[in-house]
Amino acid sequence: MSTDRLLLRGWRESDREPFAALNADPEVTEFLLGPMTRAESDAMVDRIEASFAAKGYGLWAVEVVGGPEFVGYVGLWDPTFEAPFTPAVEIGWRLARSAWGHGYATEGAQAALRYAFGTVGLAEVVSFTAAVNVRSRAVMERLGMTRDPDEDFDHPRVAVDSPLHRHVLYRLASTAAPSTARASHQASSSS
Ligand SMILES: CC(C)(COP(=O)(O)OP(=O)(O)OC[C@H]1O[C@@H](n2cnc3c(N)ncnc32)[C@H](O)[C@@H]1OP(=O)(O)O)[C@@H](O)C(=O)NCCC(=O)NCCS
């Protein structure tokens, strides 16, 4: 899947090393559960590949056309914990620090939304993050996703005394998706 500047593609063996590097970066993992070891990072790639094999969607590796071959992931994921909003399909992103500030997460996510609504045929996509993760929330807002504060929740896998415990939930219905996502949905469903 491609956008003006990005290729969202399947994972290659050569992605594992730069993925481990970004997962070991404390700035990238500030609002996640902390830096990962190489083994933890590789295990995550294995889970991502299993998602694509089982469901046909997952977290795509992101390549910058004419630039770095791997800068992180953007894509769709089924949360594996229980919350009032699950089961649901989540849209998520994680980029190397050097790839922030270019609009890549939003551009890649717009393509992932088109896939979610047009190809998978989902009626809704959610996204969530620690309330304090302002950059990730800004991506959700740029995508046109909306948050109801009544749906804020405590993440069951984050320690209750952690500043990351409280999470915000954003939703986007296929019918409310910005025209770029909707246009593709209509094109796909009529083809
Ligand atoms: C969350 C994350 C992906 C956001 O990355 P980001 O680069 O801030 O977001 P975008 O890709 O949408 O880029 C937007 C920025 O690029 C800028 N930009 C520059 N050129 C641009 C262009 N051509 N088009 C659009 N935006 C552009 C925008 O102005 C904006 O900058 P600002 O933050 O100073 O306002 C990144 O911070 C990250 O990987 N964090 C660590 C992992 C994480 O927390 N993931 C989320 C877990 S829920």
TrEMBL record:
<protein>
    <submittedName>
        <fullName>GNAT family N-acetyltransferase</fullName>
    </submittedName>
</protein>
<dbReference type="InterPro" id="IPR016181">
    <property type="entry name" value="Acyl_CoA_acyltransferase"/>
</dbReference>
<dbReference type="InterPro" id="IPR051531">
    <property type="entry name" value="N-acetyltransferase"/>
</dbReference>
<dbReference type="Pfam" id="PF13302">
    <property type="entry name" value="Acetyltransf_3"/>
</dbReference>
<feature type="domain" description="N-acetyltransferase">
    <location>
        <begin position="6"/>
        <end position="175"/>
    </location>
</feature>
<dbReference type="InterPro" id="IPR000182">
    <property type="entry name" value="GNAT_dom"/>
</dbReference>
